Amino acid sequence: PLPVGQAEVRARVNDTGPGNPPRLLHPPIFTHAHTHPDRIAVHGHDHTLTYHQLTQQALAIAGHLRSRGIAHGDPVAVSIPKGPDQITAVLGILAAGACYVPIGIDQPPHRRNRILTSAHAHHALITTTPDPDWPHTTEPIDLTTATHAEPLPQPAQPSPHELAYIIYTSGSTGDPKGVEITHAAAANTIDAINHRYTIGPHDHVLAISALDFDLSVYDIFGLLTAGGHITTITENTRREPTHWAHLIQQHHITIWNTVPTLLDMLLTTTDTHQLPSLTLAMTSGDWIGLDLKDRLTTTAPNAHLAALGGATEAAIWSNVYDVTHIDPTWVSIPYGHPLPGQHYRVVNPHGHDCPDWVPGELWIGGAGLAHGYRNDPHKTNTSFITTNNQRWYRTGDQGRYHPDGTLEFLGRTDHQVKIRGHRIELGEIETRLRELPDITHAAVWVEESGAAKRIAAAVAGTDSDAEKVRAELAGTVPDYMVPEHVQVLEAMPLNANGKIDRAALVRASPAITETPRREPVPPRTGTERAVAEIWQELLGVTEVSRDAGFFELGGDSLTATRVAQRLLRRFDVELTLRQLFDHPTLSQVAGLVDELILVTDDHDAPVRLEEGVL
Fold first, then answer.
1. What is each CA distance from 531 to 359, 396, 535, 545, 608, in whole angstroms?
2. For site-directed labelling of 606, which of 125, 141, 232, 338 has its Cα 20 to 30 A away?
3. Exposed (0-12), middle (13-18) or buried (19+): which is 272, by Cβ within 10 Å?
4. Looking at the whole model, is its pTM more than 0.90?
């Protein structure tokens, strides 16, 4: 047992009460539509919706879904590009009494179909013509048609303990796993955050997170519950931080809510005191750098930084730490303390609480816990356990308690990783690789160099080259799960136990910042030499060939943002991340810079080319 003093501290920090009263997610939005019908609810790229317009469209969608035979609790998929249509679709599904299953439009058909099958989603709201691989077991429903249907007179009122959404995350068996969250669980988290930070009608969020990432649940229902409003971005600007900054300024955004990498990208691309409207920056889902607090204060002097944590299986967030200062002894931002109605344990392999400073597995309990995994009772019973009449979710994360009851996050305990906020099961990638033609063995791991991370893989049994393997894999998993480096081997190295020798594979893999082994071609022009200097500094490489690829050298979205800012300062030309991703070699980037300089000289003003997405 824990020492008495430590047990008392744990009991005190976990005495968070029963949580907020169980409620449905959608009724407050309809209440706001009744009391303030003309208040703006959603700003889109090309249109705006008031609360009245939003709820009327949602009721029409609900009526159409009911006419298709959809009943309370039925899952309805949503595969729609980012924008106001996503929000009306989700609200319409809940107004029909159903639960929504978000699927990104960029999901490969193979993986999308696995999700539809697993969820038993027999209907899906879409805005484009279904592709040839669309499964016959799921009826596609055109959103525009649905919004012109006969509306329901009132939104459905199922039990708060019915499912609100099912979000799929990467699964270790090779199949995505669906996390079932009830209205009551999500509402408990939302109400806790809104109360803590006094979110109200004056607040305005920039909704950047994808619909199938659970931060979007707060973007939608956190703000609309409070009578606030949402500005959406387009699919083409999901990775363009200069565009985000413009929207924050234009619409006086008050709330930022993303993974740390995207906040880092925003701060990298803005100048001092450019974002005075921001009052709250919430960041979660990954390791939070100690420099973010001071950088945020410089760029958004009125913004408070809130570091949150938890799991999709516990309704968005379960803990919070308000970052008011940075202790020089910290190695990372603390995990903090549980939210109302939620509880934490740090447990050893025998199920006993770990003393202060001793690492163990983080367990979450309380009002935010998921119902379970969709159609996977074995996984549910393994991950959700009951001890002493208390249900707990075993996160697979490592953490430890400090003597004052503050939690510290230490990383994962299993074969799961987090890269730029995406929770990835390496086993799912290995399974998909082994399903490719001729591949007999596959191993996947993560390589790190400082803050940079990349997925690497090795395969055996195929005559295909690495790029062909990557291209074939991209048809079965999202792009963030495609390894940046693939070794194609005749046979896998084995250890003394006859298992794949992963350590040998890692040793044989090029370093994360190592250029592929080919004769370097020196930069030829002044612009190429200037770009090479920027790459050398930001990527930590000593030599850059003019045909070297930015991502071959270890570049990522955040570093690309920094490159764009350096080019802007050096040459007074503005490149989008899309352009950098589409023209990855040194010579191509330098050529783009030269073209923009010519355009600027011709028109005597900077010109911004096409905005885009990664």
1. 44, 42, 6, 11, 19
2. 232
3. exposed
4. no
Instruction: Report the chain (614 residues): mean pLDDT per 10 consecutive residues.
Output: 93 92 97 97 95 98 97 96 97 98 93 95 95 94 96 97 95 82 98 98 96 96 98 89 94 95 88 89 86 93 96 96 90 90 95 93 96 95 94 92 91 68 78 84 79 80 85 86 86 66 77 52 90 88 85 77 87 84 87 82 42 33
Rg (CA), the chain: 25
Domain ranges for the chain: 429-508, 526-603
What architecture is the 526-603 domain classified under in CATH? Answer: Orthogonal Bundle (1.10)
| Counts for the chain of helices (H) and strands (E), in that order | 20, 26
Pick the CATH number of 429-508 from 2.60.120.1140, 3.40.50.720, 3.30.300.30, 1.10.260.40: 3.30.300.30
Residue given tokens 């899309």 in the structure block: 578
Q: Report the relative pairing of strands 390-401 and 360-366 from DSSP bridges.
A: antiparallel
| Rounded Cα gap, residues 19 and 4, in angstroms | 26
Nearest to 88 by CA among 128, 136, 41: 41
Give how far Cα 163 sits from Cα of 39, 210, 259, Å.
29, 20, 25
